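Hi all, long-time lurker, first post. I run a small reading group and we've been trying to get comfortable going from sequence to structure in the token notation. Rather than ask abstract questions, I figured I'd post a concrete chain and ask someone more experienced to write out its structure so we can walk through it together at our next meeting. Sequence below, copied exactly:
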Amino acid sequence: MTVQLESRRDITLKAVDRIAWQGEDVEIADSAMRRMAGCKASFLRLLDDPEIVIYGVTSGYGQHAKLRLTADQRKAQAARAPVAAATTFGTPLPDRVARAIVLARLSNFLEGHAAISPHVAAAVTDLLNGGALPPVPVRGNGGAGEIQALSHLFGPLARSLELAEKDGLALINGSTCAAALAADAALSARRRLALAEEVFALSAEAIRMPLEHVAEELETLWDDPHDAATVRRLRELLNGGDAERRPYQAPVSFRILPRMLGRLRRAVAAAEEAATNSLSSVSDNPVFLPPDPASPEHPNGRIMSTGGYHNAAAWPAMDELAAGFADLCTIADRHSARLLYGSHSLLPDQLMPEDTGYLGCIPMAQVGWGQAARHAAQRTFLPGSESGGFGQNDVSPPNFDAWERQDDAGRMLDAAMAGLAIIAARALAVTDRAAPGPLAALVQQVNDNATLDNQHPPGPEIEKLAAAFEARLYPNAPA
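-- Answer (accepted) --
Happy to help. Here is the structure in token form:
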């Protein structure tokens, strides 16, 4: 299918899912192409004013911003492809994230705010309808904006096009990387939350957690929409479970499940809000304000220099996701340890029979995965030294770093949940219990991927199950 874009409001999380994650094609509506053409013409008329100062158009870039260019000089500057900033190297972003960046780039184009030539906007759109995109390194993106990453992504395209004034700048300015990174984190986190609710519900069923720990009354007693939604979801997942429950309350790590999963649900909602706002945001610099009949004093529109390219909402939202993942790693290793000790779980000692596979080392590995997640989830701050070391570029947004951290923490949680799911499924098996209907598919997935015995090391099978989990979270992940 092809997604049509008419305005920046069409660039949503759903659009990122369809275009960046699922690989659907995209096209710009004719009305938007006409709007861009009109804005480009108005912008070029602005340049007839010999007194006008427009960063990167009538002036040089960066430390050369104080230079004023003649008409010939500005045309020569415009014709050069923006590749000088492509100084980073190393592991690239996943293709889905690069596609999301290209899509988010269009938010500055569709309503004319980038004053871009329509044929350049069309060429950018075509990147989403063809083959692989140029690699964009994850690390080293320390500039005041996002020109390093965007130069990697759009530099090769720019070399093939005829560029007018501001076209090259419109390709590499703004905070579209931050928007795409936040969107990618939000989409994967929503899926990871759903998986976590299933795995921890399976653990709760394994220990026969009293259902009062997820009672309907808690929804109003706690008076928090995210905790309430989690209580309802856990109740749904446990529906049809063992009628005989523990005779007294479960360990703390089980009783606080609705609170801890509710915390992640809250972080996911915040990430989705930050991503949604960022995706449709006009973040170009300088930004063009098209002609407005209500402002006849500006018949050709206006141009302003702003800090819109600095997205200060994305990295805190991704930090919260990483923190939520790290804390759930702790809950996973606590659950595993409690399940394996009969004095805590009230389960038989056969949960760890030596002749069919010892599970006692899984919590040890979970401690290690949790430590890695906690390390990744350290709070992200603005860098403390000058960015780029020259002139005006003195603050760098840490959105790439925050995205990588939440991704690392999330994958550690996947591993920790794989270990817990194996132990919980074993607990059901040795007590001859079936999983509640909503969790039956999860137990089948565990059994299909992990048949632990004393003849094989457990690590590869836990890894196989974690990979199966990640196939539920990311497009094109190996099943």
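A couple of things your group might point at:
Residues 186 and 273 are 9 Å apart (CA to CA).
The mean pLDDT is 92.
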